[in-house]
DUF4312 family protein
Amino acid sequence: MYKEMERTLTITGSGETKQAAFQQALLRMREGIVRDTQDILLQIEPLDFAVVSAVQHTYTEKFLGFLFARVRTKYEVTANITVRLRLVELANLEFSERVRQPSRVRRILRMR
């Protein structure tokens, strides 16, 4: 029923600040793990984190092509992360079934 496993993922994120890029990458990690597993996730524990690439893109943005020039910066991060997952396997969990019949009055009220 309870299971621990380790998984290595490659995550990417981008944002207007360094913190936003890392936050987006970690959020995508969690979404990817939840999407890939059918079990109930109890805990994600990071074991190892290695940055593969960190890129800073800088460009000049102008309003109407020549007015109000400003320099914009965008950050992109790609990292490998090893995590330990603690989860509950739903395939091995047995549910008991209970069937309830509503009373006559409730059945009549629901027909409306």
Remarks:
- The helical segments are 18-36, 104-111.
- The two ends are 44 Å apart (CA to CA).
- The longest helix spans residues 18-36.
- The chain has one domain: 2-111.
